[in-house]
Specification:
By secondary structure, the protein is an alpha/beta fold. It has a single domain (about 5-175, about 230-285), classed as TIM Barrel. It is built from 9 helices and 11 strands. Strand 2 (about 35), helix 2 (about 50-60) and strand 3 (about 65-70) form a beta-alpha-beta unit.
């Protein structure tokens, strides 16, 4: 099997404009193959507007990396649909469709797209339908582990259906849920429309603990994330056997160059290394927070 590609997933957090631009200037120097750009969480996060993302995409594309424009996971207003249309019509690039509205617009305009992890694809018939609509790459949902993906691939083969590129979330805090409510604003006793863009104060999300004081989740605007940063690098052999084409690394606050180097070394050396994050129980068909690794039956 060819060396797996590395992708930098879309930025899930709200960072100041200059920090975002500086981050992506650095990212062009890392051993990445694909970079996703765009706002996927909250349309009120306008440090970079649609035209800025398109301009940044054109700049990064000049570095030789594939650039994909990502869309919102939850579309609630006509203005958000307008921004989506502009991204698809003017971006001139692949789109990561995180909502069926994006799928429909990509299909109508014959724009190739990546099926994002919030599309809820659980069967070969759904995947085949999306392929007919223009899907070329698929990012499974976070709870779809080895067994579920293996069974889906077997079903695709059994029905003589082409399998798109498979991209698995290999590093980062997992996006667990989205809501029309803003959890950050609620935690700070603010209205959603009067939030004051307080997400800027939490570049890695707002920590949420249990009543006993144990770290539990991260609040990120309308998104809820896992507290732990998952790292699938110990599962490299299974990822290869499954035919995974790309490993997705979600940006985190801190030195992401070390993370990219970690995975680049791993994919080149084809050897086990010490993980830099925690185990993802979902991959093993277990609760995501379960950390003990039982041996998998052959």
């Amino acid at each position: 099997m060819d060396t797996m590609k590395l992708s930098l997933g879309p930025l899930q957090y709200f960072w100041p404009r200059e920090k975002v631009l500086a981050f992506y200037r650095q990212a062009t120097q890392w051993p990445l193959d694909v970079i996703y750009l765009g706002e996927t969480v909250c349309s009120k996060r306008r440090e970079l507007r649609t035209r800025d993302w398109i301009s940044l995409a054109a700049e990064i594309a000049g570095s030789g990396k594939q650039v994909v424009l990502s869309t919102l996971a939850l579309i609630e207003a006509e203005s958000e649909l307008g921004a989506l249309r502009r991204l698809i019509e003017e971006g001139g690039l692949w789109i990561e469709a995180n909502d069926l509205s994006a799928v429909q617009l990509c299909r109508e305009r014959d724009v190739p797209f990546v099926g994002g992890p919030t599309l809820n694809v659980y069967s070969h018939t759904t995947l085949a339908m999306l392929i007919e609509d223009g899907l070329l790459r698929w990012v499974p949902g976070i709870e779809q582990g080895y067994t579920l993906l293996h069974e889906l691939k077997e079903a695709m083969h059994e029905h003589a259906l082409p399998m798109p590129e498979l991209e698995v979330i290999a590093y980062g805090r997992l996006p667990l849920a989205y809501s029309a409510r803003c959890f950050t604003a609620r935690a700070l006793d603010l209205g959603k429309d009067e939030c004051g863009f307080r997400c800027l104060e939490f570049p890695d999300g707002l920590p949420l603990a249990t009543r006993e004081g144990q770290p539990f989740l991260r609040i990120n605007g309308i998104q809820v994330q896992s507290e732990d940063i998952t790292d699938l690098s110990p599962e490299l052999s299974e990822l290869r056997a499954l035919g995974v084409n790309l490993l997705r690394l979600y940006p985190q606050n801190g030195d992401m160059s070390e993370v990219v180097t970690h995975f680049d070394h791993l994919r080149q050396a084809r050897e086990s290394v010490t993980p830099i994050g925690t185990r993802n129980g979902y991959w093993h068909g277990e609760p995501g927070m379960l950390l003990d690794t039982p041996p998998r039956e052959a």
